[in-house]
Specification:
The protein contains four helices and seven strands. The chain has two domains: about 5-85, Uridine Diphospho-n-acetylenolpyruvylglucosamine Reductase, domain 2 (2-Layer Sandwich), CATH 3.30.43.10; about 95-165, 2-Layer Sandwich (Uridine Diphospho-n-acetylenolpyruvylglucosamine Reductase, domain 3), CATH 3.30.465. By secondary structure, it is an alpha/beta fold. The protein has a four-stranded mixed sheet. A three-stranded mixed sheet has the order 5-6-7, with helices on one face. Flavin-adenine dinucleotide binds near residues 65, 69, 129, 130 and 146. Flavin-adenine dinucleotide (FAD) binds next to β3 and α4.
Length: about 170
């Protein structure tokens, strides 16, 4: 087995390192405008695992490309010969603070799941757009997606969210 794949498997578990045909759905964008061949797909579950993967990629000088829902339309997840770091397993909504209207989420939370969780608390997370069933909060925050929808004065709104995004750092 490829030593790199084996080392990555030690960090995230062998079943969460994908290669060969298992990489197909991580190897092109939503519109199939861009196609690429990653070295491997890594699916960490914790911040610590992400940290170890980042250190390994840095040591080996291999590009690392984060991926959320892969719904971006500008080729930002294009990871030719790179390690694609999928945040899909980091999808916990840790806490919704009803009074202060703050949601603490992991980077891989799908936008529509946050909508549902807010609704269950009789709150509204107002930022929305067509890809809400697949786009993640990490991707939304990085790209500042859908911001134009966020200012409607409806119901009680969750006005901020805080994401423990291991790729760009912890919330303040
Ligand atoms: C049908 C459809 C409708 C859409 N409508 C809108 C719209 O109305 N408004 C709008 O703004 N956009 C829209 N988009 C674009 C897209 O859905 C958004 O930009 C979305 O926020 C991307 O999130 P994602 O999780 O899919 O990110 P991805 O596509 O996975 O990634 C996008 C970029 O962010 C980086 N990234 C992803 N996650 C992380 C992370 N955790 N840490 C660091 N970097 C990360 C990736 O490396 C990449 O560069 C639409 C897309 C589709 C397919």
């Amino acid at each position: 087995m490829d030593q790199l794949v084996s080392d990555l498997g030690q960090i995230v578990g062998p079943s969460h390192v994908l290669t060969g045909t298992d990489m197909a759905r991580y190897s092109s964008d939503w519109l199939h405008q861009y196609k690429w061949q990653p070295r491997a797909i890594i699916r960490p579950a914790t911040v610590e695992q992400v940290s170890e993967v980042v250190k390994l990629a840095n040591r080996m000088k291999i590009p690392l490309v984060p991926m959320g829902g892969n719904t971006g339309l500008a080729g930002g997840t294009c990871g030719e010969a790179a390690l694609v770091l999928s945040l899909e397993r980091m999808a916990a909504i840790r806490e919704i603070r009803r009074k202060s209207k703050v949601a603490i989420v992991e980077a891989g939370v799908i936008l529509s799941n946050l909508h549902a969780a807010a609704d269950a608390e009789d709150l509204l997370f107002p930022l929305t757009f067509g890809a809400r069933g697949s786009a993640t909060l990490g991707g939304v925050a990085i790209l500042r997606s859908g911001e134009s929808y966020a200012s409607f004065p409806v119901k009680q709104r969750i006005t901020r969210f805080s994401s423990e995004n291991p790729v760009w750092g912890r919330p303040p």
